Amino acid sequence: MNQGVIVKGIAGFYYVRVESGEIIECSARGKFRKSKLTPLVGDRVAISMIDETHGTIEEIKTRESLLIRPNVANVNQAIVVFALKDPDINYTLLNKILIVIEHYGIDATICLNKSDLDDFEFEKVKKIYKTIGYDVLKVNALTGEGIDALREKLKGKISVFAGPSGVGKSTISNNIQKDIIMETGGLSKKISRGKHTTRHAQLIEVSNDTYIVDTPGFSSIDLSFIKADELQYVFKEFKVGECKFSSCLHHKEIGCKIKEDLENGLIPQERYTAYINILEELQDNRRGNR
Ligand SMILES: Nc1nc2c(ncn2[C@@H]2O[C@H](COP(=O)(O)OP(=O)(O)O)[C@@H](O)[C@H]2O)c(=O)[nH]1
Ligand SMILES: [Mg+2]
Ligand SMILES: [Zn+2]
C-alpha cells in the first residue's frame, strides 16, 4: 500500500501525491460514502494501485485539524500576513484572525510584509506578539528579503495564508513558488486547474512534505460562533486557570488575576483592550439576537 496526501479533488477524483513524488489519480472506496467520510484535500491516505497512474483510497488517517473555508484537512499553521504600511495594520482584524486560528487549534506565525515602506511598526508588533508566543517575521515580497526565514517556517507542514487583501499574500506565495521551481530545475509539477470545474482548494508542494494552500483562509471573520465566556480561552497569554473566580470574564471583576497580569505587564495592554472590545461585541450580539 502507498502512503500519500491528497493535493487536489475534483468531481469524485482525488489526486494523491505519493512518496515517490508522483501524483496518482484515485477514487475512494464506497465505505467512505457510507460512513459519510468525504476525503478532503490535505488528508493523509493509504492507497492501492490499479495501474501505474491510477489508484483507490483505502484508508484516511485521523485528521489533526479541519478548516471549513477553505475546506482542507491537516493544516498545521497559518501564516498571518499584514503589511507594515499601505495598508496600515488593522489590529482588531489581526486579533480576530488569531482567535479563529486558536479556535482551530493550529499554529500561527505573523508575517509582516512591505518592510521597504516602514521600519518602526515592525518593532511594535514584535514587542506585543512575541511576548505572547507568536513568531513574527519581516519580509519584502518584492525583493525576496526575509523569504528564506519564511520558507524555513513552512518546512514539513501544510500552511495556509491569511490576511486582508492588498497586503501581499499572492506576491509572497508567488515568490515562494518561483524559488521552488528554480530549486528543482523546473521539475516542479503544477497541477493545472480544470477550466469548467468548481473552484476547490488545492495544495501546492513547495518542497518535500511541505505544502501551501492555494487560497487564503479566514476571509470573513465572524466570531459569533464563540460564546462570550469562552473568548478568554483563545487568548493564549491569559492564564485563565489562575484566576480564582471560576466564572470570571476578567472585565469588571475585582481581584481578577488576568487584570493583575495586565498591570504587571505580562499581558500587553493592546491585547487586553482587544479582548474587552470583542467580549462586548459578543455580548451585544447575543442581546441583539434575543
Ligand atoms: N512596496 C511593496 N509592495 C508590495 C510588497 N509586496 C507586495 N506589494 C504590492 O502590494 C500590492 C498587493 O499585493 P498582493 O500580493 O496582490 O496582495 P494580496 O491581496 O494580499 O494577495 C501589489 O501591488 C504588490 O505589488 C512589498 O514587499 N513592498
Ligand atoms: Mg491575492
Ligand atoms: Zn478574572
From TrEMBL:
Instruction: Report if keyword Cytoplasm is assigned.
Output: yes
Q: Which UniProt keywords apply?
A: Cytoplasm, GTP-binding, Hydrolase, Metal-binding, Nucleotide-binding, Ribosome biogenesis, RNA-binding, rRNA-binding, Zinc
Q: Which GO terms describe its molecular function?
A: GTP binding; GTPase activity; metal ion binding; rRNA binding
Q: Which GO terms describe its biological process?
A: ribosomal small subunit biogenesis
Write out the residues that bind Zn(2+): C243, C248, H250, C256
Segments forming domain CP-type G: 64-221
Q: What is its main location?
A: cytoplasm
Q: Which InterPro entries match?
A: G_CP_dom, NA-bd_OB-fold, P-loop_NTPase, Ribosome_biogen_GTPase_RsgA, RsgA_GTPase_dom, RsgA_N
User: According to its UniProt record, which cofactors does this protein need?
Assistant: Zn(2+)
Give the EC number(s) listed in the UniProt record: 3.6.1.-
User: What compartments host this protein?
Assistant: Cytoplasm
One GO CC term, this protein:
cytoplasm
The first-level EC class reads: hydrolase
- Binding locations of GTP: N113, K114, S115, D116, G163, P164, S165, G166, V167, G168, K169, S170, T171
According to the entry, every stretch annotated as the EngC GTPase domain falls at 73-219
**What HAMAP family does this protein map onto?**
GTPase_RsgA (MF_01820)
Q: Which family does it belong to?
A: Belongs to the TRAFAC class YlqF/YawG GTPase family. RsgA subfamily.
Summarize the subunit comment. Answer: Monomer. Associates with 30S ribosomal subunit, binds 16S rRNA.
Kindly provide the name given to this protein in its UniProt entry: Small ribosomal subunit biogenesis GTPase RsgA
